[in-house]
Amino acid sequence: MVATRRQSGKLLPPLTAPSTGDVETSDEEDPFGGYESSTDESDSSDDDFAVKRAGRKGRPAAKRAKTSDTPSKMTTKSKNKGKDLSRIVDMPLDVLFEIFGCLLPNDLLNLTRTNKMLRATLMSKQAVTVWNAVLKGRNAPKCPEDFSEPRWAYLLFGGNVCHTCGAKGIRRVDFGLRRRACASCLKEKLVVASKFGTRFPDYEPIVLDLLLYTNTGGWAHGYASNSKFYWVDDIYDMATELGKYQKDVNLRKRGAKQALDDFKNSRIEFVAANFANAQKCYKWASARAKILEEEKKERINQRYQAVEAHLLRLGHLKIDMRSLQNCSAVNKDAELTDLSWSRMRATVEAEVNKHKVERIARERKSLIDSRKRVVKDVYSAYKKELVPIQWAYHPKDEHVYNFEGIAALINDPSASNIEASHYREALEKLPSPIEAFNEGQRALLLSLVTRKDNSSDISNDIAGKAGRTCLDLATSVFRCSTVGCQLRERPLIGCQRAICHSCDVHRGQCYGYHYGFSHLQRDTLTPAFTFSDRGSTAVESLAVLLAMDAREAVPADYDRKAARFVCLNCALLSRAGIHGREALTWRDCVAHFIDARYRKNHDSPNWKLLTHDETMDIKRREQSQRDPADYDEAWSCNHCSTYFDNFARRESVIQHLKNIHGNTNPSEGVDFFYDQRRGRTPRVPVRFGTPTAIAAKSKDPHRCLRCGGSREFTLQGVTDHLKAKHKITDPVIGRDMQKI
């Protein structure tokens, strides 16, 4: 590596380093195509390694007057000490090669681009050991025989650049074609074997057998297939090369035919060997990608740990730093320097402080929730001592949390749990705040009540009978307007029913609303009520038919009548073997008129009161059907607190009364009850009208014995037939009818 001089005795002028564009050399101008001759070293000089000093042509800069007597601490010579690399050429080659062999492949490739002398040295055949050592250090696949080591290193580690167009970010190497290519170039340059004849009709198919190929097409997004794809430029080059051999054969040159056969055989063997080697290279590339990913994660983790160490020194807690793993300033593949830390410190500390506030809020919420659980347990124990039917008239747990004495304990600023005895002392005074709460609810409902009869002398508070207020009347009909409440379409008749109402909101349904579950949950704590004018009007119209005073009648008065009605506004329909209308209870009538507010001919209520016999017939048919409310898990025993937290079905509660309390004939409302906080599942109304013809074949055929004919009925049909034609209201099987 001794630098030579020109014949004039002057050294060559210093060379500037190649531009970064040299890195993106296309495959057709491969900078590492092979080894360079050692004679090129004669064109280099020691100045190739020297640091180029910037200056300007023409007149030198004017000297400045010295303004201080203090000598400079460092002369120009001492400033440049250690930066002049020109003497590196004096080092022995074996020492240089030993140093270069410790570099990474991409660093060694970049070193060949620094100046001509280093390039000539590294591209010479003497540097083969350097390239082999570097490639072996990265467990790279063995270099093919037709490739030089520098070119092989360039293919494997030469940057993520397309060899054709120079596009960046191309990580995948197509080892079948021995090139890096972007998606655009692959789509433009690749030719599938099935379309070779169409695109190149003048070429013989034997050309494809002599070419390198890949199984990954331009539209495959990196996924291999069973098809073979060829590089279009290789097709043209191979056709030209094959044409030369064929021309010699046509000219009948000696040995031309043998040369052509040897060329084809060698190319076929070469293609097969390259395909086998490509499969090994793909496995290596996949393993290397995993290693690089692990190394990247390790570097990111080291950066995170460095940031964490800085924050710990600043007094932050490690628990507040967990979110930094998602912070873009921290989750970066770059070494953390003092400069980068100074730039990102404000952002990182703001993120840590934000999560510190959130952590404190979570811890505070967890503490408050634990206190609420204690209150709930104590409050539940208090309610279990009451008559079970009174549970519905007590505020929900969420309301109790806001009671004055309880709220002070729950929101105590201390960070410790409060003993349950303190809550018991506060809950001993519960009757007063509960009564005040219910009075507040009644006052709220009272403000919603609107009296239509303005000429009435009855006050808004007293409805007539002693102890009854207008809220107790059946005409006080409310509806829940809470968003998401499953019972918002059902009327709440009387203030007691409204006070007991609990919004039934399913959790899965809450996520459908744009403002989220938490907003709906807050709404369900205090239901939003509205007064139903249509419901009140319906009750007043029913009172007229029942000869009752709507200004005095309460819901229990209507229940005792147990009357049945039909809506004359509804059209006559033929269903379930009856041509008529639905038979409704008075509560069903109120719900029906409210639901029919958008239906035709339902502007005002128009009912028909069924006669006693008609009502008894309807009730008999109702009793033949199972009440769907019996299957609701909303029943409880009224003698114990067994079903306090887990209401059961009616049958289970009745069995409990028989087994535990010895009550063989329990009565609803006295021995057991339906939870008033829930909406009772309504019955399917039976129909009132004229029986229609029944299909000849039915699932449960019966025959009328009074007629003696062969006509078949359903059980319900033959019962109605006997009543309508033979005036038999209580038919007996075997005497009046027969099951077929």
From TrEMBL:
Matching InterPro entries: F-box-like_dom_sf, F-box_dom
Biased composition (Acidic residues): 38-48
Biased segments, Polar residues type: 68-77
Comp. bias regions, Basic residues: 53-65
PROSITE patterns attached to this UniProt entry: FBOX
Residue span, F-box domain: 85-134
Chain spans, region Disordered: 1-83
Domain of life: Eukaryota
Source species of the chain: Piloderma croceum (strain F 1598)
Protein name stated in the entry: F-box domain-containing protein
